[in-house]
Specification:
The chain is of the alpha/beta class. It is built from 14 helices and 15 strands. The protein has 2 domains: 10-61 and 349-383, Urease, subunit C, domain 1, CATH 2.30.40.10; 63-342, Alpha-Beta Barrel (TIM Barrel). The strands form 2 sheets. Strands 6-7-8-9-10-11-12-13 form an 8-stranded parallel beta sheet. Strands 1, 2, 3, 4, 5, 14 and 15 form a 7-stranded mixed beta sheet that branches. Strand 9 (172-174), helix 5 and strand 10 (195-199) form a beta-alpha-beta unit. The longest helix is centred in the last third of the chain and has 15 residues, at 328-342. The radius of gyration is 22 Å and the shape is globular. It starts with 9 loop residues before the first strand and ends with a strand.
């Protein structure tokens, strides 16, 4: 049987390309068969005709470090936002309805919307079986998907089946410190390098961890769930106690953390993901990220149960608006390059922007400032690199 010939490299020339923190004007991009892309240096000639894309600026595609693909059709605009436990009651009641989309159909619709809105890669917590879309649909529709099973286990025991499953996955999602027992969390952090967890999201969590009381405690009692043992004044203390205060951990939301708690996470090498759309949905006070961290957190979108839309540009523009202490370029780098590195995603598509006759900004700072505004043009299609 004859082996397949390696695909010849392609040479592409948008009007401008934003790679990293540099805006390149008129540079030819060399695309290899493995999905690698590089700017052709001066003096190197293309080995095949150059495909020209006039009036377009290309960028790295956005990466969202947190999402839930279920809940696409959740009627969450009518749900209570405070306390958090009341929102959870609404979510659980709706999930019991037969008329809702199945987790698989919801995941498919969520991935369609993310792709349409220019998202190149995403890490999702799978809190319902099947919420990763069907494999053949996922691979064709959204190949750069990380989907980790989410553990909600306040009891001390963990089944043998669950242990075996977790040993076969590239990463695990823990629901939250208040919903996972210390023994289960310790086992996960000892046996998995990559762990994502909702952490320090709201005052309900802080009260529950410190005193074992409050709205979340009442919800647990209603549903016959055990109250986790051990009291902690901070979710970061809990994370340290279970062995998760280390590189490889991704702390999600973190909207109720204090400056010193953020600094402990950063010093320990814990990555942080923030969902600005969810921040706005719950009308929460915005943390002083720029006063506590040396660089912006990664960005996420959560789900349609706690957001208006699944759109990385919505999250980006909100982040620039809510935390102006980091520049639009810093936020863009976090949304693209840093996000891809954190999730170990390679070969991501490029995102095409139609300039619509607008003059090109002179540099990366000006371009990202423009992207963060309402004046920015709509993006075009994702351009796959493999």
């Amino acid at each position: 049987m004859e082996s397949k010939k390696a695909q010849a490299p392609r040479f592409l020339q948008p009007e401008a390309t934003l790679l990293g923190d540099t805006l390149l004007h008129g540079v030819v991009l060399a695309l290899d068969s493995k999905g690698g892309v590089r700017a052709l240096p001066p003096g190197e000639s293309p080995s095949s005709p150059v495909e020209v894309f006039e009036g377009e600026c290309w960028t790295q595609s956005p990466v969202l470090a947190h999402a839930h693909l279920e809940n696409f059709d959740a009627p969450s605009s009518d749900w209570p936002r405070q306390p958090f436990a009341d929102w959870v009651r609404s979510l659980l009641a709706w999930r019991s309805e037969d008329s809702r989309l199945s987790p698989s159909d919801s995941a498919h619709r969520s991935l369609e919307e993310l792709k349409q809105n220019g998202c190149g890669g995403v890490l999702a917590h799978m809190s319902e079986p099947g919420a990763n879309s069907l494999p053949h649909e996922r691979d064709e529709l959204f190949p750069h998907l990380r989907c980790w099973s989410e553990i909600f286990e306040p009891g001390e025991a963990m089944s043998r089946e669950l242990r075996e499953l977790l040993q076969k996955t590239e990463g695990v999602a823990l629901h939250a410190p208040f919903s996972v027992s210390q023994s289960v969390a310790k086992w996960v952090f000892q046996n998995q390098l990559h762990v994502s967890i909702h952490l320090g999201e709201h005052s309900d969590e802080r009260e529950f961890l410190e005193y074992g009381s409050g709205p979340l405690a009442h919800l647990f009692e209603e549903r016959g769930r055990p109250i986790p043992e051990g009291r902690f004044s901070s979710s970061v203390d809990w994370l340290e106690a279970v062995g998760g205060l280390r590189p490889g951990t991704l702390a999600v939301h973190c909207t109720n953390l204090k400056k010193e708690e953020f600094q402990r996470l950063e010093e320990a090498g814990v990555s942080i993901a923030w969902c600005p759309g969810t921040q706005r949905y719950f009308c929460r006070e915005t943390p002083d990220f720029s006063g506590a961290l040396s660089k912006p957190p990664l960005l996420g979108c959560d789900s349609m149960a706690s957001n208006e839309v699944l759109d990385p540009m919505w999250e980006y523009r909100l982040a620039c608006e809510l935390v102006p202490g980091f520049s639009p370029l810093e936020w863009w780098t976090s949304l693209t390059q840093t996000g891809a590195e954190a999730l170990n995603l390679t070969g991501l598509p490029l995102l095409r922007w139609e300039m619509g006759g607008h003059p090109l900004p002179v540099d990366a700072e000006a371009f990202c400032q423009w992207l963060s505004s309402e004046e920015a043009p709509g993006h075009g299609n994702l351009f796959p690199l493999s």
